Amino acid sequence: MPSQFRCNGDDGYLPWLDNLLQIKETANETLEGIDYDFKIFDDAKLVHEEIIRLNKHNKKSRMVAGYCWEWISKKNRDLKDIIIDDYRATWNLTEHGQAWLVHPESVTEIGCIHTCQGLDLDYVGVIIGPDLIVRNGKIITDGTKRATTDRSLWGITQQIREGEPSALGTADMIIKNTYRTLMTRGMKGCYIYCTDPETQQYFKERLSRNSHKTVQYGSKSGESLSFDK
Asked: 15 near 27, Cβ under 8 Å?
């Protein structure tokens, strides 16, 4: 698939990402020699704090997430949609729509696949929800973990429940490509947090294969663990 994104070093990053998400096998096992800032954080709150800090430079850094949380703040802005431990956040405001990037205050909000396509950011923070997990090194997707308001899987989850053979494959492709899109919104870097511990460990292990890359994991204490291979 030709590169559709202007990520730094995208000729290497995108095939690496395809391999990482098990969309297709590629020869790109590491990010060695690729000018792209990819980090894993152990706390969703720390990812968002870093995105807010980076956004101060030119207002082009944002948070996004898999659509795994109901949009309850749509009718009541006092409510929080995304709750992970002590982290609280809301989906982007209705009136912003796909223009949420241009609103200065929207850096405190979370975008999703429906509002971030076609947007070029400097840095993107991505929360990988329970619709994509890893077990024994294999990525497993589950469309039933998506919010009921997610239109991208409307009808497909019902087909899965009814035993439609092709539905599982369709949902798997949609979910993996959703995260591929989210993780390629940042031209300079992508910072991720996984809600599932085994999935978090999978990404760490894959990233640590880089032989000449500094791998940084944001810890709950706010420190970073760096490995110069």
From this structure: yes
Local confidence pLDDT in tens for the 229 residues of the chain: 334 445 765 678 999 999 999 999 998 888 888 889 999 999 999 999 999 999 998 889 999 999 999 999 988 989 999 999 999 999 987 666 566 777 777 899 999 998 887 778 999 999 999 999 999 999 999 988 999 888 888 888 778 778 787 888 999 999 999 999 999 999 999 999 999 999 999 999 999 876 544 444 455 433 333 322 2
227 lies in some domain: no
How far from 223 is each of 136, 193, 204, 218, CA to CA, in Å? 28, 15, 16, 6
Number of domains in the chain: 1
- Residue 165, domain member (yes or no): yes
Structure tokens, 38: 């990819």
Residues 69 and 48: their CA atoms lie apart, in Å, by 17
Identity of the amino acid at 229: K
Q: Are 21 and 47 in contact (CB under 8 A)?
A: no
Backbone angles phi, psi at 28, to 5 degrees: -90, 90
pTM of the prediction? 0.87
* Residue found by looking up tokens 């420190």 in the block: 223
Provide the domain limits for residue 190: 10-215
- 204 belongs to a structural domain: yes
* Residue bearing tokens 């000449």: 212
Distance between CA atoms of 29 and 15, rounded to whole angstroms?
Answer: 9
**What is the distance in angstroms between the CA of the first residue and the CA of the last residue of the chain?**
30
Q: What burial class does residue 82 get, using C-beta atoms within 10 Å of its C-beta: 0-12 exposed, 13-18 middle, 19+ buried?
A: buried
210 in any annotated domain = yes
